Every structure is written in structure tokens, then in C-alpha cells.
Amino acid sequence: MHVTSKARLIATATALLWLAVLPAAPAATPQYQIYDIGVVDVGDTASQGFGVSHAGVAVGRSLHTGGSEAFTWTLNGGLVGLPNLAGRNYAVSNSANDTGSVVGTAATTAFGSGRLPVIWQNGVVSQLPLPVGETLGDANSVNASTVAAGSADGGSLQRGVIYSGGSATIITQTTSNGSYFVTAFGINDSGRVVGQGIDPTNAARNVGIVYDIGQSMAFEVGALPGMNGALAFGVSNTGYVVGSSMLNQGSGLPFIWSDQGGIVAIPVATGTSQGSARAVNSAGWVVGNDSSAFSIPFLYDGTATYRLADLIPPNSGWDLSMNTSSSALGISENGIIVGTGVHNGETHAYAMVPASATPTPTPTPTPTSTPTPTPPPTATPSPTPTTTATPTATPTSTPRQAPTPRLRPTPPPRP
Length: 415
Description:
Elements: H1 6-21, E1 32-36, E2 46-52, E3 58-64, E4 67-74, E5 78-81, E6 90-96, E7 101-107, E8 116-121, E9 124-127, E10 137-142, E11 148-152, E12 159-164, E13 167-170, E14 180-187, E15 192-198, E16 206-212, E17 219-220, E18 229-235, E19 241-246, E20 252-258, E21 262-265, E22 274-280, E23 286-291, E24 295-300, E25 305-307, E26 318-319, E27 327-331, E28 337-343, E29 346-354, E30 369-370
Antiparallel strand pairs: 1-29, 2-3, 3-4, 4-5, 6-7, 7-8, 8-9, 10-11, 11-12, 12-13, 14-15, 15-16, 16-17, 18-19, 19-20, 20-21, 21-30, 22-23, 23-24, 24-25, 26-28, 27-28, 28-29
């Protein structure tokens, strides 16, 4: 018999509530204003945006010679630099909740050497406790209850971790075939955790793994047709999971998964042939990156996939389609998108804010689904075509400190 957790039931109930109250999908292409988040200190060389809270608190890092500084940004409050942990000159904020907590990673190099999980509360930084015996870790996501998800250790010993109430617990729950968490990339408010898993029976295969806190087992999102695995990067409060599905460790295609609909392909943006979905809100709006010769940040509204470059005012000075540094890594409940682009020649974090109140669409993904485990909902809104083209592009700006990679395609790194 399948074990069902209270968390899972809550997620499903919430999803049904959204289905009952959401307005019809907008008919028009969404329009956005774009804001330059900028850099923390004069002389910083670049900034990158890595996520946004439900209510619109953006997070990321500002880079300078010999270090980086984490930040938060809000439309009304602007950019606020966060202090570094002593002995760690490289910091990044990966996630924020709406009660003032921010989590991330502090390291000794831009690539994550000596990385430690950290939390900022009331402007004060402190290290999150690691599991007994561990000396390395990172915190990738935090929910409204200030429960964080990330990983500990590195290489073949790296494991997914939950940080809660002053302690850290390795996620030991496995799927039915024994696949286990290597790192947790996202956690929602009801305790659904998503990330990258390892299949002990086929190490060449990526596992998009999901665990509802309180359950005795984890489960997989499955794979798109023609693929055999996935990586799961984001989860919404209604239980949607997004990521990339691939054959073994090859190039992937973006997907959205729900308890009710299983795994569904997200159409790639015009002129691209592969990509990865990175974040999703409760209505099923998804952001991520597709690629051709360049990196193409996209928005999927449940029906159509848009290049972000087509949704901002012309002559804005922003290049979101002709470079390898651009990304879209976070979307808030009211549609604020956060990522990185090139503004007047400089690599900067941005926040795209809906130009007018954009109603949140009804869930129901469209394309053919390949069901998997048990069932939150699905998504529908407005149009734009999709095509195919060429290979993947990856950011060239100083990379985000990555959780010690395994021999598999880990996502655009999370420190």
C-alpha cells in the first residue's frame, strides 16, 4: 500500500482550492517591466540573481575581486548587502522566505571550496549546523517555517539534508528501487522536498527525486518519452515540481510534474532545442533556461513558452537572448521573475515585474503526459510557438558555487 503523508494531502487540498478560485487564463501575452538589481558596492564586477520569495524578495550575489557578497532586493526597499561569514569570502543567498530568513552558502572560493550552509536573520549571518561528522554543506531553499533544504559532504558521499530547529538531518528515505537524495534543491511550505537522486542500480541515470516530510519513502517524477531520468529543481506550494528530463546524463528538456498529471513536457522556446525548468509558482507558471548558441531564459504560462527578451520594453538596454550569461531562476506568486542578464554590457541580476496586475492562471499542463506516482494539479494560460534549434549554452559569468558535483549533469550550480 502506498504511504500518504499529511503534507501530501495538504498539497493536494491546496491545489484543489486553487482550481476552484483561480480566474481564467489571460488571453494576452504577459508584459513586464525590468529592474536592474545592480551591485552591492561600487567597483563590484557583476551580480547574479538566484531566486525570489513568494512575495517578491529577490536573492543572489554581487561579485568582486577576491570574493562575493550575498544580497536581498525588493521593489520598494532596493538592494541590501548581507554580511559574510568569518573566514569565508565568497557568499551567495539562494532562497528567502517572507518572514525575514535567507539561506545560502559561504565558501572560500567562487567554486564552492570549503562550503558551509548559512542563514541570515535580521541582518546577522550564522552557520547552520551540519549533520554529525560532516564538515561541508550548503542550503539551497527555505520555506515559511524556516525549514531549509540542501546537502552535506561532497563527491560520492554527498547527501540531501533538511535543516530544521537547530539541527541537520540527512534524508535517508529512498524510492522503491533504493534511489537516494544527493542534494535537495527546493522545499515548499508543506514540506515537499525535491532534488537530484542517484539510482544505485544504474549510476548513469539521473533521478528527479521527491520526498514529502513525514513519509517513509521518496519517489521519482519519472521521465519524458524517450528519456530515462530527470533532475528536479523547483517545487510550488501546490505541489508542482519542475526540472529537466534526459537520457542518462545527456541534454535535457524542461518538464512540469504534478501528482494528478504526472510528468509533462514544457515546449521549448522558439529557436531552441533543449532546456531546464528552474522554478514554478502555485499557479503553474514556470521559468527556466532553454538554449541554442545562446542561453534563452523563458516563461511558460501553462500553454505557451515565451522568451523573456520578448516580454520586456524595447530599447531597455537589456540583452536576454544574445549571450551565455542570462538565466531565469525564480518566480514569485504574483509573477515577479528573477535571474541574470546583460544590461548595457554588464552582467547584472534583474527583477521582471508584471507591467499590470497579471492574474494567476488556472493549472493544467497541456502536452502529452507520462504518469508517475500519486497526484497536485496542472496549468493553463496564453500563446507563443515553439521550435527546435541547437545546443545548450551555459553562463560565462563567474559560476555559482556548486554543491560538489557527481559525475552527472548537475544544474546551473547551487553552491
